[in-house]
Protein backbone atom coordinates (compact mmCIF):
# COMPACT_ATOMS: atom_id res chain seq x y z
CA UNK A 1 0.00 0.00 0.00
CA UNK A 2 1.29 3.43 -0.96
CA UNK A 3 1.82 5.71 2.03
CA UNK A 4 2.26 9.35 1.05
CA UNK A 5 2.67 12.25 3.46
CA UNK A 6 1.01 15.24 1.78
CA UNK A 7 2.05 17.96 4.23
CA UNK A 8 5.77 18.34 4.92
CA UNK A 9 7.97 21.40 5.43
CA UNK A 10 11.69 21.21 4.69
CA UNK A 11 14.40 23.88 4.99
CA UNK A 12 18.03 24.37 3.95
CA UNK A 13 20.37 23.10 6.65
CA UNK A 14 21.83 26.53 7.43
CA UNK A 15 18.43 27.97 8.41
CA UNK A 16 16.52 24.85 9.41
CA UNK A 17 16.85 25.16 13.19
CA UNK A 18 15.82 28.83 13.16
CA UNK A 19 12.88 28.12 10.85
CA UNK A 20 11.62 25.28 13.04
CA UNK A 21 11.96 27.42 16.16
CA UNK A 22 10.08 30.32 14.56
CA UNK A 23 7.26 28.06 13.41
CA UNK A 24 6.99 26.54 16.87
CA UNK A 25 6.74 29.95 18.49
CA UNK A 26 3.98 30.90 16.06
CA UNK A 27 1.91 28.02 17.42
CA UNK A 28 2.78 28.46 21.09
CA UNK A 29 0.54 29.94 23.82
CA UNK A 30 -2.64 28.79 22.13
CA UNK A 31 -6.04 29.23 23.69
CA UNK A 32 -7.23 25.77 22.71
CA UNK A 33 -8.45 23.22 25.22
CA UNK A 34 -6.06 20.47 24.17
CA UNK A 35 -3.24 22.58 22.75
CA UNK A 36 0.08 20.70 22.95
CA UNK A 37 3.17 22.32 24.40
CA UNK A 38 5.87 23.80 22.20
CA UNK A 39 8.26 21.10 23.41
CA UNK A 40 5.83 18.42 22.21
CA UNK A 41 5.76 19.81 18.70
CA UNK A 42 9.26 20.91 17.75
CA UNK A 43 11.82 18.15 18.14
CA UNK A 44 12.78 17.57 14.49
CA UNK A 45 15.33 19.60 12.56
CA UNK A 46 13.37 20.15 9.35
CA UNK A 47 15.99 18.91 6.88
CA UNK A 48 15.34 16.65 3.91
CA UNK A 49 17.79 14.07 5.22
CA UNK A 50 16.07 13.73 8.59
CA UNK A 51 12.65 13.63 6.97
CA UNK A 52 13.71 10.73 4.77
CA UNK A 53 15.12 8.90 7.77
CA UNK A 54 12.06 9.24 9.99
CA UNK A 55 9.76 8.64 7.02
CA UNK A 56 11.52 5.41 6.10
CA UNK A 57 11.26 4.27 9.70
CA UNK A 58 7.49 4.82 9.53
CA UNK A 59 7.08 3.10 6.16
CA UNK A 60 6.23 6.34 4.31
CA UNK A 61 7.36 6.19 0.69
CA UNK A 62 6.58 9.64 -0.74
CA UNK A 63 6.24 13.20 0.54
CA UNK A 64 4.74 16.46 -0.70
CA UNK A 65 7.39 18.98 0.35
CA UNK A 66 7.29 22.77 0.48
CA UNK A 67 8.35 25.86 2.37
CA UNK A 68 6.97 29.38 2.71
CA UNK A 69 8.36 32.69 1.49
CA UNK A 70 7.75 35.30 4.18
CA UNK A 71 8.70 38.10 1.76
CA UNK A 72 8.48 38.47 -2.02
CA UNK A 73 12.28 38.54 -2.36
CA UNK A 74 12.44 34.96 -1.00
CA UNK A 75 10.09 33.39 -3.55
CA UNK A 76 12.63 32.35 -6.18
CA UNK A 77 15.21 31.05 -3.71
CA UNK A 78 12.62 28.96 -1.85
CA UNK A 79 11.32 27.56 -5.13
CA UNK A 80 14.85 26.76 -6.31
CA UNK A 81 15.55 24.93 -3.05
CA UNK A 82 12.39 22.80 -3.25
CA UNK A 83 13.01 21.97 -6.91
CA UNK A 84 16.60 20.98 -6.18
CA UNK A 85 15.53 18.72 -3.32
CA UNK A 86 12.99 17.02 -5.58
CA UNK A 87 15.68 16.38 -8.16
CA UNK A 88 17.93 14.87 -5.49
CA UNK A 89 15.24 12.77 -3.87
CA UNK A 90 12.73 10.93 -6.08
CA UNK A 91 10.59 10.35 -2.99
CA UNK A 92 9.66 14.04 -3.04
CA UNK A 93 6.80 15.78 -4.86
CA UNK A 94 7.33 19.53 -4.78
CA UNK A 95 5.10 22.55 -4.29
CA UNK A 96 6.54 26.00 -4.69
CA UNK A 97 5.66 29.16 -2.85
CA UNK A 98 4.35 32.60 -3.78
CA UNK A 99 3.84 35.92 -2.02
CA UNK A 100 1.17 38.54 -2.57
CA UNK A 101 3.85 41.20 -3.27
CA UNK A 102 5.65 39.19 -5.95
CA UNK A 103 5.45 41.06 -9.25
CA UNK A 104 5.18 38.26 -11.83
CA UNK A 105 2.96 35.39 -10.75
CA UNK A 106 2.67 33.81 -14.19
CA UNK A 107 6.35 34.03 -15.01
CA UNK A 108 7.37 32.32 -11.78
CA UNK A 109 4.64 29.68 -12.07
CA UNK A 110 5.84 28.86 -15.59
CA UNK A 111 9.40 28.60 -14.30
CA UNK A 112 8.65 26.29 -11.38
CA UNK A 113 6.33 24.14 -13.45
CA UNK A 114 9.19 23.63 -15.89
CA UNK A 115 11.31 22.58 -12.88
CA UNK A 116 8.75 19.91 -12.07
CA UNK A 117 6.85 21.45 -9.16
CA UNK A 118 3.17 20.54 -9.09
CA UNK A 119 1.54 23.28 -7.01
CA UNK A 120 2.00 26.27 -4.75
CA UNK A 121 1.87 26.57 -0.96
CA UNK A 122 0.57 29.68 0.80
CA UNK A 123 0.45 30.40 4.52
CA UNK A 124 -1.64 33.57 4.72
CA UNK A 125 -1.38 33.83 8.50
CA UNK A 126 2.42 33.85 8.47
CA UNK A 127 2.65 35.82 5.22
CA UNK A 128 0.12 38.36 6.55
CA UNK A 129 -2.36 38.67 3.73
CA UNK A 130 -5.93 37.49 3.35
CA UNK A 131 -6.47 34.40 1.25
CA UNK A 132 -9.12 36.36 -0.69
CA UNK A 133 -7.05 39.53 -1.05
CA UNK A 134 -7.76 40.82 -4.60
CA UNK A 135 -4.02 41.00 -5.27
CA UNK A 136 -3.55 37.23 -4.89
CA UNK A 137 -6.65 36.15 -6.84
CA UNK A 138 -4.90 36.05 -10.25
CA UNK A 139 -2.61 33.33 -8.85
CA UNK A 140 -5.54 30.97 -8.33
CA UNK A 141 -6.73 31.42 -11.89
CA UNK A 142 -3.21 30.81 -13.23
CA UNK A 143 -2.84 27.62 -11.20
CA UNK A 144 -6.13 26.23 -12.47
CA UNK A 145 -5.27 27.05 -16.08
CA UNK A 146 -1.90 25.34 -15.77
CA UNK A 147 -3.27 22.26 -14.00
CA UNK A 148 -1.46 23.00 -10.75
CA UNK A 149 -2.91 23.00 -7.25
CA UNK A 150 -2.95 25.43 -4.35
CA UNK A 151 -2.24 24.11 -0.86
CA UNK A 152 -2.85 26.62 1.89
CA UNK A 153 -2.81 26.80 5.63
CA UNK A 154 -6.44 27.58 6.35
CA UNK A 155 -8.04 28.71 9.57
CA UNK A 156 -6.60 30.36 12.65
CA UNK A 157 -8.93 31.70 15.30
CA UNK A 158 -6.34 34.31 16.30
CA UNK A 159 -6.42 36.12 12.94
CA UNK A 160 -8.68 36.88 9.99
CA UNK A 161 -6.50 35.86 7.07
CA UNK A 162 -7.57 32.36 6.07
CA UNK A 163 -10.65 31.35 8.02
CA UNK A 164 -13.33 29.12 6.47
CA UNK A 165 -15.50 32.06 5.40
CA UNK A 166 -12.71 33.71 3.40
CA UNK A 167 -11.57 30.36 2.03
CA UNK A 168 -15.09 29.47 0.93
CA UNK A 169 -15.25 32.78 -0.93
CA UNK A 170 -12.08 31.96 -2.85
CA UNK A 171 -12.78 28.35 -3.79
CA UNK A 172 -16.23 29.26 -5.09
CA UNK A 173 -14.70 32.01 -7.24
CA UNK A 174 -12.34 29.53 -8.92
CA UNK A 175 -14.18 26.23 -9.39
CA UNK A 176 -11.61 25.07 -11.94
CA UNK A 177 -8.75 25.28 -9.43
CA UNK A 178 -8.05 22.52 -6.94
CA UNK A 179 -7.49 23.73 -3.39
CA UNK A 180 -5.97 21.65 -0.60
CA UNK A 181 -7.20 23.28 2.59
CA UNK A 182 -4.76 22.06 5.20
CA UNK A 183 -5.59 20.94 8.73
CA UNK A 184 -9.00 19.53 7.84
CA UNK A 185 -9.98 22.82 6.25
CA UNK A 186 -9.57 25.19 9.15
CA UNK A 187 -6.99 24.92 11.90
CA UNK A 188 -8.63 25.98 15.16
CA UNK A 189 -11.90 26.50 13.25
CA UNK A 190 -12.68 22.90 12.40
CA UNK A 191 -16.44 23.04 12.95
CA UNK A 192 -16.94 26.02 10.64
CA UNK A 193 -14.70 24.40 8.04
CA UNK A 194 -16.95 21.33 8.02
CA UNK A 195 -19.93 23.61 7.43
CA UNK A 196 -18.45 25.75 4.65
CA UNK A 197 -15.81 23.79 2.75
CA UNK A 198 -17.46 20.57 1.65
CA UNK A 199 -17.08 21.58 -2.00
CA UNK A 200 -16.12 19.76 -5.19
CA UNK A 201 -12.78 21.54 -5.65
CA UNK A 202 -11.74 21.37 -1.97
CA UNK A 203 -9.44 18.70 -0.60
CA UNK A 204 -8.24 18.55 2.99
CA UNK A 205 -5.37 16.94 4.85
CA UNK A 206 -5.16 15.48 8.33
CA UNK A 207 -2.18 17.53 9.48
CA UNK A 208 -2.06 19.30 12.85
CA UNK A 209 -5.52 18.13 13.83
CA UNK A 210 -5.31 14.98 15.95
CA UNK A 211 -2.80 16.55 18.34
CA UNK A 212 -5.13 19.47 18.99
CA UNK A 213 -8.61 17.95 18.99
CA UNK A 214 -8.22 14.19 19.25
CA UNK A 215 -10.00 11.28 17.62
CA UNK A 216 -13.63 12.40 17.98
CA UNK A 217 -13.20 15.61 16.00
CA UNK A 218 -11.07 13.78 13.44
CA UNK A 219 -13.92 11.33 12.86
CA UNK A 220 -16.31 14.27 12.39
CA UNK A 221 -14.05 15.47 9.61
CA UNK A 222 -14.13 12.08 7.93
CA UNK A 223 -17.93 12.08 8.18
CA UNK A 224 -18.24 15.59 6.73
CA UNK A 225 -15.83 15.61 3.79
CA UNK A 226 -15.82 13.34 0.76
CA UNK A 227 -13.41 10.65 1.91
CA UNK A 228 -11.77 10.56 -1.50
CA UNK A 229 -10.81 14.21 -0.88
CA UNK A 230 -8.91 13.55 2.36
CA UNK A 231 -5.11 13.13 2.42
CA UNK A 232 -2.77 12.02 5.18
CA UNK A 233 -0.39 14.77 6.26
CA UNK A 234 2.00 14.93 9.21
CA UNK A 235 3.07 18.62 9.28
CA UNK A 236 6.69 17.55 9.78
CA UNK A 237 8.83 18.95 11.45
CA UNK A 238 6.18 20.08 13.94
CA UNK A 239 5.05 16.50 14.37
CA UNK A 240 6.58 13.05 13.90
CA UNK A 241 5.30 11.39 10.70
CA UNK A 242 5.18 7.91 12.23
CA UNK A 243 3.13 9.05 15.21
CA UNK A 244 0.73 10.97 12.98
CA UNK A 245 0.37 7.91 10.79
CA UNK A 246 -0.53 5.78 13.78
CA UNK A 247 -3.07 8.38 14.91
CA UNK A 248 -4.91 8.12 11.59
CA UNK A 249 -4.74 4.34 11.68
CA UNK A 250 -6.25 4.37 15.19
CA UNK A 251 -9.49 6.00 14.01
CA UNK A 252 -11.08 2.70 12.97
CA UNK A 253 -11.49 3.62 9.31
CA UNK A 254 -12.52 0.88 6.90
CA UNK A 255 -9.76 -0.58 4.72
CA UNK A 256 -10.84 1.22 1.53
CA UNK A 257 -10.96 4.61 3.24
CA UNK A 258 -7.63 4.06 4.96
CA UNK A 259 -5.88 3.01 1.76
CA UNK A 260 -7.22 6.10 0.02
CA UNK A 261 -6.32 8.55 2.76
CA UNK A 262 -2.82 7.16 3.28
CA UNK A 263 -1.81 7.54 -0.35
CA UNK A 264 -4.15 6.49 -3.13
CA UNK A 265 -6.29 9.63 -2.92
CA UNK A 266 -3.34 11.98 -3.37
CA UNK A 267 -1.86 9.92 -6.19
CA UNK A 268 -5.20 10.05 -8.02
CA UNK A 269 -5.40 13.80 -7.30
CA UNK A 270 -2.04 14.31 -9.02
CA UNK A 271 -2.98 12.07 -11.92
CA UNK A 272 -6.15 14.08 -12.52
CA UNK A 273 -4.57 17.55 -12.52
Give structural notes:
- With 273 residues, the chain is an alpha/beta fold.
- The protein has one domain (4-271): Alpha-Beta Barrel (TIM Barrel), CATH 3.20.20.
- Helix content is 45%, strand content 13%.
- It contains 12 helices and 8 strands.
- It has helices at residues 13-26, 38-41, 48-58, 75-88, 105-114, 124-127, 137-145, 164-173, 190-196, 210-224, 241-249, 255-271; strands spanning 4-9, 62-66, 92-97, 119-122, 149-152, 178-181, 202-205, 230-231.
- An 8-stranded parallel β-sheet has the order 1-2-3-4-5-6-7-8.
- Strand 5 (149-152), helix 8 (164-173) and strand 6 form a beta-alpha-beta unit.
- Helix 3 packs parallel to helix 11.
- The protein is globular.
- The two termini are 22 Å apart.
Overall geometric form: globular
* Strand-pairing-aware structural class: alpha/beta
| Neighbour order of strands in the largest sheet | 1-2-3-4-5-6-7-8
Helical proportion? 40-55%
Instruction: Please describe the biggest sheet, giving its number of strands, its sense, and whether it closes into a barrel.
Output: 8 strands, parallel
Corresponding CATH superfamily: Metal-dependent hydrolases
Enter the CATH topology name: TIM Barrel
Output the helix-strand order: EHHHEHEHEHHEHEHEHEHH
Total beta strand runs: 8
The unreliable regions are none
How would you name the oligomeric state of the polypeptide chains in this document? single chain
Task: Describe, in short, the structure shown.
With 273 residues, the chain is of the alpha/beta class. The protein has helices spanning 13-26, 38-41, 48-58, 75-88, 105-114, 124-127, 137-145, 164-173, 190-196, 210-224, 241-249, 255-271, and strands at 4-9, 62-66, 92-97, 119-122, 149-152, 178-181, 202-205, 230-231. It is 45% helix and 13% strand.
Amino acid sequence: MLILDSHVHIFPEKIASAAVEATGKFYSNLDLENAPSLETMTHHNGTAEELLAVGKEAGIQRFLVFSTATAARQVQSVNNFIAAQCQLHPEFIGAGTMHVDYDDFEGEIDRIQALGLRGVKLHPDIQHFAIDDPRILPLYEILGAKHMFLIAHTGDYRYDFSGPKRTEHVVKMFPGTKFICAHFGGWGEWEEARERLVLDNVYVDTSSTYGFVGAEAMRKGFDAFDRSHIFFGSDYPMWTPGKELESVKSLGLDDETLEGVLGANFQRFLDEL
